[in-house]
């Protein structure tokens, strides 16, 4: 598909939703992709990227940050507490704040540094047992707890169940964000980003539609 096509489709979806051009931030999800593909997308001017694995990101991005000014790196995978320090060295945003123990450790680390990445709370809108995230019923309480810890929340993130219409999940996320005064909505992937934009996404996370299929082999 490629970056140009995706940019055009984002612009069309923004216009259709009556939103300003550039309202939606495209996060190019580069996990597991061959370096040459990522470098081509960097060369085409894309600067916002998403990664799922701290160790993998640590091996790739310091050099690319040197070579390409203005990289904005987002953590979108589950974050283990023992990788927190490394993650804070690497990432400008974390979309997977998903449990009280992580919030507490993050608060201590952020205070010691005097700086925090932008933070999104991951909500498990489908209440799927195998998936990370705060359950919708617990979201208001968890958001309040994070604010009590002085964590700078910018929004919410969700990954809808694969076998369901994502739109009700996008709407639920938007509702939780609205009643908690949060503007950021990280939702929408290769298969559904246009619907996410229609439902108010501010950040879409698109991997395979830009880079091609991932080869985990
Ligand atoms: C891998 C991943 C994406 C990108 O998925 P595509 O279907 O390739 O666009 C988006 N969000 C999260 C959380 C992911 O893990």
TrEMBL record:
- In this chain the Alanine racemase N-terminal domain maps to 3-214
Similarity section = Belongs to the pyridoxal phosphate-binding protein YggS/PROSC family.
Give the source's domain of life in one word.
Bacteria
Indicate what this protein is called per its UniProt record: Pyridoxal phosphate homeostasis protein
Which organism encodes this protein?
Paracoccus mangrovi
- Residues with PTM N6-(pyridoxal phosphate)lysine: 31
User: What's the stated role of this polypeptide?
Assistant: Pyridoxal 5'-phosphate (PLP)-binding protein, which is involved in PLP homeostasis.
UniProtKB keywords: Pyridoxal phosphate
């Amino acid at each position: 598909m490629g970056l140009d096509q995706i940019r055009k489709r984002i612009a069309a979806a923004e216009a259709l939703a009556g939103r300003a051009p550039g309202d939606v931030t495209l996060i190019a999800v580069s996990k597991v992709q061959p370096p040459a593909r990522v470098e081509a997308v960097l060369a085409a001017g894309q600067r916002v990227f998403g990664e799922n694995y701290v160790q993998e990101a640590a091996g790739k991005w310091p050099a690319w940050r040197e070579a390409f000014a203005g990289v904005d790196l987002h953590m979108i995978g589950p974050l283990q507490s023992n990788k927190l320090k490394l993650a804070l060295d690497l990432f400008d945003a974390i979309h997977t704040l998903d449990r009280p123990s992580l919030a507490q450790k993050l608060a201590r680390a952020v205070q010691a540094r005097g700086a925090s990445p932008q933070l999104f709370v991951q909500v498990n809108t489908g209440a799927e047992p195998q998936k990370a995230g705060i359950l919708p019923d617990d979201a208001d309480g968890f958001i309040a707890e994070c604010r009590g810890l002085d964590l700078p929340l910018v929004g919410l993130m969700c990954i809808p169940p694969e076998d369901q219409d994502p739109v009700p999940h996008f709407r639920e996320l938007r509702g939780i964000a609205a009643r908690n005064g949060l503007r950021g909505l990280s939702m929408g992937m290769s298969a559904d980003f246009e619907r996410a934009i229609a439902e108010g996404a501010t950040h879409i996370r698109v991997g395979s539609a830009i880079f091609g299929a991932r080869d985990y082999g």
